[in-house]
Design a protein that fits this description.
The complex is a heterodimer of chains A (705) and B (72). Chain A has 705 residues and is an alpha+beta fold. Chain A is built from 19 helices and 24 strands. Chain A is globular, with a radius of gyration of 31 Å. Chain B starts with 17 loop residues before the first helix and ends with a helix. Chain B is elongated. The chains are: A alpha+beta (705), B mainly alpha (72). The interface between A and B is medium-sized, with 22 and 24 residues.
């Protein structure tokens, strides 16, 4: 019997869980391998894929559009870098010849099911109708053994839905990207790939709409009143009942009328509030919380969670569910956590109570909410893995906690016709938050011991002019949430789409600031083919793909419908190709000027300094545009990590152009002459010291190994 | 003249593209609010708004353009 898994680490876990003696044999064939194990009377061969082994490829000739015909081919035919796929497919094909029964043991979701199906069909040349499916939500021995005992048939509607998703995305991606790219080539003769896709277009549109609001924002003034009262020699901060005063004159009057007056406490209002634990994590809430606490991009959180899942430490992370099924053995998970020093006390405490976790509303038919498995890590976790694991464990523990109970207190104070507030927040019972530290913070503020009828003298009172603020830009987490709310993409693809908007150059910076290229694309599509930015079209397609999974529609219908829609779009596009190309070329010119040009060359004066990449080493540096003509060889080195954006100011020390470097969450400004600049020698020295320290640390670690 | 005086995009009014024209209209309409709330003149208003942290980029560009005109 052959088991097809999704990754080498999953294959090892599965072989280990199923082998009677827990000693599967790894048979190595060059750089790849497979596992042999025995379960009862069955001899099992466990092979692995490396994600998708097959991809769609155009079956007609020509880099033109429209192109609607495609076929599944081994991945190495489409991606020249996928050199390890060919020996893997050959190995699976060879092993499959000796096998009668096949089991798909990939992740139980759309992509996993499709990977298993395509491997069966093309590599094993087996009949998928006869194959079996293992369904599991974690890679623990128990889950895997149960899944093996309770194998089912393949989920064909799910496979068909996955296949159509790939085909539809291929049709839109290939044709629209070619249309855009060829319009630029026709206008300017450049071959610059400008891509868009079924979900990428609407995502760009969300970012652009927000950017427009921000760019068109005019702040309006308002005034806020700050008041300090005095009671028995103690200073107390009071609030004016209106947060915003709409005119300077009114603010002035309030200050005059309150100054040095005696106010009286009219009433003290207390409101006791109970707050239940937050629901269990699904992928989206985990990504959002991990961004908030650790600054992880959603795609990074998914990668780390996937690695924890492959180590059998947590359940399958690609889930929409916020519920833990009644069948889940929470007692066993908690008992497992007791054996881990960091969680022992908390897990013991939880075990004493009723083991009924709080549940959320969202469900997922394939997998439960994300939860720890209770297994101990068998290898040393990286810092990021440790952080994410801690967040998941503490969220899980908090589900069993009592509600948080807090008192909101507000004293209403009257001073002539004016009302002032004194607020306090007191936590009476920490409940579940005790398990969720440090991810929960309450800003407690004690209310002074005052009573109704007491007097407070107004000591100081002042007003401050403030201004309304523009809406906040998206961050990776808020953009991902919006895609989820709009039902665009899937839980697996959304984080990649969010990343792609940036990696294609349509946005710059951590906060999704639209680039001039992004604007050009948005403007041009908006003017000539607005449907490519519309959420309606892609949301309709999502519905159709869901309908396939629910057996309410079929592949042929959805593909026909997609092709006829696409043909209509492409015909309209073709009619206006010249104008579209012109708009994109202008945008590209502005984009290159903004992101790569650094003003006139200080050496030859008539050349322009530009950020360039060495074709030999791949390293970036600043060079003069006159270099090609052999007239000027001025260069400046650049930091190799991070995003660089030219600034509109000069260095106060050496008068060279300033740049901004953003690497991860760190951002700094320096000049292009930073290695020679007299004002930056201290910076250079400390950079050198940091490098030396890092080198000696690396050396020490190597020696220890 | 077929290009926006500020950014070179296609014209939507006599001087500006769609974006800078909307920015200009927003700037004019917000002045009424500023005048009634803070009692300032058009020139004072432009001087103030151009330096505020939340002011949009297109608004800033329009103010810079207006300031280059003699009779602003």
């Amino acid at each position: 019997m052959m088991l097809i898994t999704e990754k080498p680490s999953a294959a090892k876990k599965i072989a280990n869980a199923l082998d009677d003696e827990k000693k599967p044999r790894e048979i190595k064939k060059g750089k790849i391998s497979y596992f042999e194990c025995t379960k009862g009377n069955n001899d099992l061969v466990v092979v692995y894929a490396l994600g998708h082994l097959y991809e769609l490829k155009q079956s007609e000739k020509g880099w033109i559009y429209p192109r609607f015909e495609n076929k599944w081919v081994p991945k190495y035919e489409v991606d020249k870098k996928a050199t390890n796929i060919k020996p893997l497919i050959n190995l699976i094909t060879k092993l499959a010849k000796e096998v009668d029964d096949f089991v798909v043991a990939t992740d139980y979701d759309i992509e996993g099911s499709l990977i298993g199906y395509l491997t069966l069909k093309y590599a094993c040349k087996a009949n998928p109708e006869k194959a079996k499916r293992m369904r599991f939500s974690s890679l623990t021995d128990l889950d895997l053994q149960c899944a093996f005992e309770r194998m089912t048939n393949l989920d064909f509607p799910m496979i068909e839905s996955g296949q159509v998703r790939h085909e539809v995305d291929w049709l839109y991606g290939i044709n629209l990207t070619r249309a855009l790219t060829l319009s630029i080539k026709k206008t300017a003769g450049w071959f610059k790939v400008v891509s868009t896709g079924r979900v990428q277009g609407p995502t760009l549109s969300f970012v652009a709409e927000k950017e427009k609001e921000i760019n068109l924002f005019v702040p309006l003034p308002f005034w806020s009143i700050s008041i300090i009262g005095e009671r028995e020699g103690e200073k107390i901060e009071l609030e004016y009942f209106k947060r915003q005063i709409q005119s300077k004159e009114e603010a002035n009057n309030i200050v005059r009328e309150l100054y040095d007056q005696i106010s009286v406490v009219k009433s003290i209002n207390k409101r006791t509030v109970e707050q239940n634990p937050n629901p269990p994590f699904n992928l989206s809430s985990l990504q959002s919380e991990a961004y908030r606490y650790f600054g992880f991009k959603p795609s990074r959180t998914l990668d780390i969670a996937q690695s924890l899942y492959l180590d059998a430490l947590i359940s399958y992370p690609r889930t929409s569910s916020e519920q833990l099924p009644e069948t889940l053995d929470v007692k066993a998970i908690l008992t497992g956590l007791v054996s881990m020093r960091e969680y022992a006390l908390m897990a013991k405490e939880v075990l004493k109570g009723r083991l009924e976790p709080v549940q959320g509303k969202k469900t997922d038919p394939a997998h439960p909410a994300i939860h720890p498995t209770g297994e101990k890590p068998t290898k040393r976790l990286t810092t990021n893995e440790k952080n994410l694991y801690d967040l998941i464990v503490k969220r899980f523990l908090s589900l069993f906690g009592e509600p948080l109970v807090k008192d909101h207190l507000r004293a209403d104070i009257k001073c002539n016709k004016h009302i002032l507030y004194l607020r306090g927040l007191q936590i009476l019972k920490r409940g579940w938050t005790e398990y969720y530290e440090p991810y929960f913070k309450a800003n407690e503020r004690a209310l002074p011991n005052i009573e109704e009828g007491e007097s407070i003298r107004i000591d100081t009172v002042d007003f401050e002019e403030k201004y309304t603020q523009p809406p906040a830009r998206f961050n990776p987490s808020s953009l991902l949430k919006l895609l989820e709310r709009e039902n665009l993409g899937t839980k697996t693809t959304r984080s990649r789409i969010v990343d792609s908007v940036k990696s294609r150059g349509y946005t710059v910076g951590e906060r999704f600031e639209l680039s001039t290229l992004g604007y050009a694309l948005y403007d041009t599509l908006g003017q000539y083919v607005p449907i490519m930015l519309s959420t309606e079209m892609t949301r309709q397609l999502e519905k159709e793909m869901d309908a396939i999974q629910n057996r309410e529609s079929n592949r042929e219908y959805v593909l026909e419908h997609t092709k006829s829609n696409l043909l209509e779009i492409l015909e309209k596009f073709k009619e206006q190709e010249d104008k579209i190309g012109e708009g994109l070329v202008k945008g590209l010119q502005r984009y290159w000027k903004d992101t790569e040009e650094l003003g006139p060359c200080p050496r030859c004066v008539d050349g322009i300094l530009r950020i360039v990449q060495s074709p030999k080493t791949g390293k970036r540096f600043i060079g003069c545009s006159n270099y090609k003509d052999g007239k000027c060889d001025q260069t400046f080195p650049l930091p190799q990590k991070g995003t660089i954006s030219p600034l509109d100011k000069m260095c106060p020390f050496c008068d060279h152009r300033m740049i901004r470097v953003v690497s991860g969450r760190r951002a700094w400004e320096t000049c292009i002459n930073w290695t020679q600049c007299p004002g930056r020698q201290e910076e250079l020295k400390s950079l050198e010291q940091r490098r030396e320290r890092q080198t000696s640390r690396d050396k020490g670690e190597k020696d220890n190994d | 003249m077929i290009e926006c005086l500020i950014c070179g995009r296609n014209l939507s009014s006599t001087k500006f593209c769609e974006y800078h024209e909307t920015a200009y209209l927003n700037l004019k309409s917000a002045f009424n609010d500023w005048k009634s709330k803070a009692g300032i003149t058009w020139a004072e208003y432009l001087d103030k708004v151009i330096h505020l942290e939340g002011t949009g980029q297109w608004i800033i560009e329009v103010i810079e353009y207006i300031k280059t005109e003699d009779d602003f």
